[in-house]
Amino acid sequence: MKLSARNQLPGKVTAVNMGVVTAEVVIALDGGGELVSVITKTSVENLGIAVGKKVHAVVKSTEVMVAVD
C-alpha cells in the first residue's frame, strides 16, 4: 500500500492496553524510541494488532509543534 504521508515509522508492537472503546498501542520504533497511539478497539481487532506484530506508525499532520527548555 502506498500512502501520501511521509512519516511512516516501522516498528513492533510491545503492548496493547484495551479499553471499552479505545486501545492504547505501544510501538518500539526500529530506529529507536517508542511511540504510543490511541485507536479504536475495533481497529485493533480488524488489523489484528497484537504484541510482537510488525506495524508502521503513520503520522500525517498539518501542524507539528517544537519545544525547547
Automatic annotation (TrEMBL):
Membrane topology label: Peripheral membrane protein
UniProt keyword Repressor, yes or no: no
Organism: Methanoculleus formosensis
A Pfam short name: TOBE
Source organism superkingdom: Archaea
Family matches, as InterPro entries: Mo/tungstate-bd_C_term_dom, Mop_domain, Transp-assoc_OB_typ1
Localization in the cell: Cell membrane
Protein's UniProt name: Transporter
SUPFAM superfamilies for the chain: MOP-like
Domain Mop span(s) in chain numbering: 2-68
Record key words, sorted: Molybdenum
Protein's UniProt keywords contain Iron: no
One example of a Gene Ontology biological process annotation: molybdate ion transport
GO cellular component, one term: plasma membrane
